[in-house]
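Hi all, posting the design record for the shared folder.

TITLE: backbone redesign
STEP: 1 of 1
STRUCTURE INPUT:
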């Protein structure tokens, strides 16, 4: 074996590893997935030797290699890492490694590769950062050298790709619609390309969200999985691809990047394009293991919320556009009485805004509705011990607004005129420096004047014909970058300000927007039956403290379903909790239950917002078991929910996932929210003791053998709390 070990770099963390060999002219990926251990030189040489595949019949005359920047120069016939041209030429990039550096740490590290393409004058920096969580972030920047050909290089696509083994044969990604976001869909990975493209100007309510490829039948608790998330708040592309000849010594590839429109990125000498970070993760412990990596990554961020997440009341479903001061003051009184900690005034407060067809863009308080400004409400809210928050939708504009009449050129659209409105609104051209500055000044003034603690930042419509009217030049990329700069500038002026990403519900949920916001609104739907599933799958990427979960009224405003208090309250417990209903119309009994619920949430939120999310694999899709377990296994909270009827009478033993089998646990049914309606003559024998808080059971019985859980009627939920007893 030749001595290649000095040219092999390894990043290792949390049981996963990336291995790259600095081959000429472009380095190749030898391995991504399970940690191979601390490999001696002989093992590294063996890994390189076994990374060389056979030469096939009717094929190129050298072994195909899967490089860090796969192109046709490697005889790669799949999706290339780079597509583009220089005035119609140099469409086949020929890159070579010019420099590299590797900074391994005890948990992770960074490998940086510098490539160049003399024909186009492009220098490419490719950075692999393996975080202590085991999530691998891949960052790419393409820069035209100052002395390059003066013609612009038209960049068509940049796709970050990593290899997959043959056993990765089943794809899971997501789709959805308004009020039904993150609906999972599975399919076998065959030959060819499974690609998901987003052309909505934001990830959208049908976002692929996370593309996972694993061994067939992988579940929440078991199975080996490889996954990618594109951290970008605009147009995206995800793909899983498998060719008959493989990908070097590997079988397929997984990747993603920004979907670029034709002519959008044209690099003149000295200009750069930085692709969105693609986050890759591997797990041999199913989807929960994958979620745990992403949650650990997010919780390690310096800006991750550290303090208790305040219970919110949002005014939308309470008053809609009917902004009457006396009514809102009474609502604030009731909110404080039930334990709300942050009061948020939703849409309808600004000039001309009596419905959704006018006023967007005019970000000053309506003097007709609010003759004294928002001060009377803000002062009253603060006097009750609550923070004050406000709804805004800065990226949108109604044509019926003073702003549109004064600056029609700020409305994004073709030179021939804007297209049809969506929800009566169009898009404000954030890439226009004057429009951008107007928004920053308007938002800054509001936050400063009213000492606003929280902005609910909405983005309702999708972006179509996202071109600048001056030359019909596509600006979807520039729009997202301007958004990022706007939020960053506002946060720099107001470091304590918290921002929620809302986009017609859960239409902009990605790690790009979460670099600069503090939570997301998972869905406009507060129907608990729908929310159980939406929240279950939102957790595949985000920990509960970043996901807004509000309890609404008995009749859902999105589905018209009437649901029980118990299911609504229990469902909203598992996240950043809030209330979305008119408390002034609640009965004393309803207010008492809400008060008990906020108290329970405050008691449990250290666990809910710091523990490990777990989800059980059940064959009956009408039943769900999910929960949060402390990282040291000392405590857990589970929700056992039935959403609909099913043929099953008895479930049999159901293991409670994530517990320490060597420990003993006190098992308690929390009854503050009321008991569910049971579908049985008598409960399981263990349940009365759990109701009396006198039951202790071995962890092995709970998490390995399982409990026969009670049979519930439809749309009911049971809360189980477990606490490890001293040994």
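Okay, here is what came back for every position:
SEQUENCE:
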């Amino acid at each position: 074996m030749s001595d290649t070990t000095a040219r092999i770099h390894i990043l290792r963390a949390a049981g996963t590893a990336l291995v790259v060999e600095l081959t000429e002219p472009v380095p190749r990926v030898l391995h991504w997935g399970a940690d191979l251990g601390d490999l001696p030189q002989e093992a590294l040489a063996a890994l390189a030797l076994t990374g060389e595949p056979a030469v096939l019949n009717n094929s190129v005359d050298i072994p195909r290699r899967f490089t860090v920047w796969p192109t046709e120069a490697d005889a790669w016939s799949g999706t290339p890492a780079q597509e583009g041209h220089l005035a119609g030429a140099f469409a086949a990039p020929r890159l070579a490694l010019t420099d590299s550096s590797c900074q391994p740490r005890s948990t992770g590290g960074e490998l940086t590769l510098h490539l160049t393409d003399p024909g186009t004058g492009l220098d490419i920096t490719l950075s692999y950062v393996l975080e202590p969580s085991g999530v691998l972030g891949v960052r790419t920047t393409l820069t035209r050298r100052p002395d390059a050909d003066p013609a612009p290089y038209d960049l068509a696509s940049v796709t970050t790709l990593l290899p997959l083994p043959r056993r990765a044969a089943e794809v899971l990604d997501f789709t959805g619609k308004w009020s039904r976001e993150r609906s999972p869909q599975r399919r076998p990975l065959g030959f060819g390309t499974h690609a998901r493209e987003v052309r909505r100007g934001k990830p959208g309510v049908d976002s692929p969200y996370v593309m996972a490829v694993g061994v067939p039948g992988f579940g929440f608790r078991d199975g080996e999985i490889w996954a990618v998330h594109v951290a970008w708040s605009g147009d995206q592309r995800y793909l899983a691809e498998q060719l008959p000849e493989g990908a070097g010594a590997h079988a397929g590839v997984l990747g993603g990047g920004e979907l670029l429109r034709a002519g959008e990125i044209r690099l003149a000498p000295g200009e750069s394009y930085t692709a969105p970070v693609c986050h890759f993760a591997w797990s041999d412990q199913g989807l929960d293991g994958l979620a745990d990596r992403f949650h650990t990554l997010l919780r390690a961020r310096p800006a991750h919320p550290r303090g208790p997440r305040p219970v919110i009341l949002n005014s939308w479903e309470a008053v809609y556009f009917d902004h009457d001061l006396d009514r809102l003051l009474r609502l604030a009184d009731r909110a404080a009485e039930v334990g709300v900690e942050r009061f948020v005034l939703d849409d309808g407060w600004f000039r001309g805004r009596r419905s959704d067809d006018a006023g967007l863009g005019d970000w000053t308080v309506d003097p007709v509705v609010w003759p004294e400004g928002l001060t009377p409400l803000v002062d009253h809210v603060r006097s009750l011990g609550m923070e004050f928050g406000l709804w805004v939708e800065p990226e949108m504009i109604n044509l019926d607004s003073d702003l549109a009449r004064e600056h029609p050129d700020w409305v994004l659209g073709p030179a021939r005129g804007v297209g049809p409105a969506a929800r009566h609104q169009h898009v404000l051209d954030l890439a226009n420096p004057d429009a951008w500055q107007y928004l920053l000044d308007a938002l800054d003034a509001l936050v400063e004047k009213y000492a606003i603690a929280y902005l609910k930042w909405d983005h309702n419509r999708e972006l179509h014909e996202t071109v600048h009217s001056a030359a019909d030049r596509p600006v979807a990329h520039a729009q997202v970058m301007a958004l990022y700069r706007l939020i960053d500038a506002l946060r720099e002026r107001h470091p304590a300000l918290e921002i929620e990403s809302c986009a017609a519900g859960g239409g902009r949920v990605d790690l790009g927007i979460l670099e600069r916001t503090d939570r997301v609104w998972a869905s406009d739907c507060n129907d608990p039956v729908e929310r159980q599933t939406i929240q279950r799958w939102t957790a595949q990427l985000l920990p509960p403290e970043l996901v807004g979960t509000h309890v609404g009224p008995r009749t859902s405003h999105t589905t018209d379903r009437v649901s029980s208090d118990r299911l609504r309250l229990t469902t909203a417990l598992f996240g950043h909790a809030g209330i979305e209903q008119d408390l002034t119309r609640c009965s004393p009994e309803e207010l008492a239950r809400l008060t008990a619920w906020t108290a329970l949430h405050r008691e449990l939120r250290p666990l809910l917002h710091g523990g490990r999310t777990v989800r059980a694999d059940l064959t009956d899709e009408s039943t769900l078991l999910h929960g949060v377990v402390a990282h040291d296994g000392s405590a857990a909270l589970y929700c056992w929910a039935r959403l609909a009827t099913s043929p099953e009478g008895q479930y049999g033993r159901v293991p409670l996932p994530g517990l320490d089998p060597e420990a003993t646990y006190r098992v308690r049914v929390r009854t503050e929210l009321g008991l569910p309606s049971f579908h049985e003559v008598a409960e399981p024998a263990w349940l009365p003791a759990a109701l009396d808080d006198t039951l202790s059971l071995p962890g092995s019985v709970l998490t390995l053998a399982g409990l026969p859980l009670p049979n519930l009627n439809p749309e009911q939920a049971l809360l189980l709390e477990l606490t490890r007893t001293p040994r």
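COMMENT: The CA atoms of residues 91 and 133 lie 38 Å apart.
Let me know if anyone wants the other runs.
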